[in-house]
Amino acid sequence: MQRGSFQWMKTLNKSIILNKIRTGGPISRAQIAKDTKLTPPTVSSIVKELIEQGIVRESAQGTSQGGRKPTMLIINSTEFYIIGIDAGPRTVKFVLADLSGELKEEKIIPIDRKITGHQFINILVTGIKSVLSARKALAGKIAGIGVAMHGVVKVEEGVSEFAPNLDLHDVAIKEELEKAFDYEVKVENDARAMALGEAWFGDSEGVKSMLALNIGSGIGAGLMIDGKLYHGEYDLAGEIGHMTLDVNGEECTCGNNGCLQTVASGPAIEKRAKQLLAEGRAGGLASLAGGNPDQVSGELVYQAAVQGDKDSKAILEETGTYIGIGLTNLIHVINPSKIVIGGGVSSAGGMILQPIKQTIKARALTNEAKQTEIAISPLQSNATVLGAVALVLTELFDPLPRNSD
Ligand SMILES: [Zn+2]
Q1: Cα–ligand 1 centroid distance for 239 (angstroms)
Q2: What does pLDDT average to over the chain?
Q3: CB–CB of 192/231 below 8 Å?
Q4: Where do the structural domains in the chain lie, given as residue ranges?
Q5: Centre of ligand 1 from the C-alpha of residue 298, in Å
Q6: Which of 48, 180, 198, 291 sits between 20 and 30 A of 346, alpha carbons compared?
Q7: Helix, strand or coil for residue 337?
Q8: Cα gap 229→209, rounded to integer Å
Q9: How confident is the model at residue 10, as a pLDDT?
């Protein structure tokens, strides 16, 4: 679908009705009118248009409330497709998904060396072409491309302002991709995209305020308030990986010292594990790594911990404690209804969740705050890329995609 086509597709009432069908379908026209407070003739004429456009279809008949059975409406989720991209810092993941978030195609391109902005764009273009050529028949049905980019993103302009782990500055992702493909492109910070993914496809729909944390090679967070992403004045909201925990701590990629991600990210786990090996400790981990410290990864530390290596277990507990301290700070500032933890480090599951919960319990100010719901992401490694897909869905379904922040 060509760029700009959504402008004519989208009106406020249309989005309200579409979203009602998405979240409440199968649903009858009468019920939509009742729930949205739009008049039955308005609902009928908009639904007629949506059916003609192919995005809504009639399904089986519902049960009668007296009189004839109403025809039920559902989203025709295979009418449009979206390309979602989870970009970096170590790999770029590309998916082709339908409107229900079902993945039809998937491709991963590793970033294994230092690259320029130009080379980064080339990787994106190559990956998009690859998923498109695998599904040539769908090229005319692409509703847009969503990019979840690590680092600081200027959301309106679609520019990656600063990607610290790739050392890239001012990469005009939206402009370059819209030049290369005639699709609408949305760019968002990866942790915020992840929060959106959890809200659309995880177990967090309807949660009043939700903080989603992405803990991998960096740490970022996305905040949803009343179903909308919060960006802050300059799109910086959620950069919690650079919250200072120790003013005398190790230097971070950002140049400051003792940031949360110097003690709680995947690389931080790796580094501490290597130190222990050098001291002749963490025997279980050493044997899993075949005596080679280069084999040590966060994943291996987790495996060693599961197999009973006490030092590896202690590393994960310490990591959980640091994350818990960071989260307690956030609870005191934001007081979210729920916190979802995703990213590579979250695959340590309970081993990391328990110390996080204990730390919050020990440190939070009130009993309610101590009980804040903390969950490991149900979408796991697909959360961010599904969030990228949801960036385009938001444009399509949501009447007011951005907070008035
Ligand atoms: Zn930092």
Answers
A1: 9
A2: 90
A3: yes
A4: 5-75, 81-199+384-397, 204-378
A5: 20
A6: 291
A7: coil
A8: 10
A9: 61
Ligand 1 midpoint to CA 92 (Å) = 23
Query: Which positions ≥6 away from 158 have C-beta within 8 Å?
Result: 147, 172, 173, 174, 175, 185, 186, 187
**Selecting from 3.40.630.30, 2.60.40.10, 3.30.420.40, 3.20.20.70, what CATH number does the domain 81-199+384-397 have?**
3.30.420.40
Nearest alpha carbon to residue 142 among 155, 153, 131: 131
Separation of CA 72 and ligand 1 centre (Å): 52
Domains 5-75 and 204-378 agree in fold = no
Distance 69 CA to ligand 1 centre (A): 60
Domain 5-75: top CATH class: mainly alpha
Q: For residue 349, what pLDDT band results from cuts at 50, 70 and 90?
A: confident
What spacing in Å lies between the alpha carbon of 53 and ligand 1's midpoint?
47
Supply φ then ψ for residue 238, to 5 degrees.
100, 0
pLDDT of 23 reads 83
pLDDT for res 402: 45
For residue 11, the model assigns a pLDDT of 73
Distance (Å) from CA 77 to ligand 1 centroid: 41
Q: How far away, in angstroms, is 244 Cα from ligand 1 center?
A: 8
pLDDT at position 401 = 45
Confidence of residue 405 (pLDDT cuts 50, 70, 90): very low
Q: Cα(263) to centroid of ligand 1, in Å? A: 11
Cα 261 to ligand 1 centroid, rounded to whole Å: 7
Burial label for 175, CB within 10 Å (0-12, 13-18, 19+), is: middle
**Average pLDDT value for residue range 192-218:** 88
Can you tell me the distance from the alpha carbon of 184 to that of 236, in angstroms, rounded to the nearest whole number? 23
Place of tokens 């903390």: 374
Q: Distance, CA 54 to ligand 1 centroid (Å)?
A: 47
Distance CA 99, CA 122 (A): 27
* d(CA 164, ligand 1 centre) in Å: 9
Q: Over the stretch 238-285, which tens digit does the pLDDT of each residue have?
A: 999 999 999 999 999 889 999 999 999 999 999 999 999 999 999 999
Name the fold adopted by 204-378. Nucleotidyltransferase; domain 5 (3.30.420)
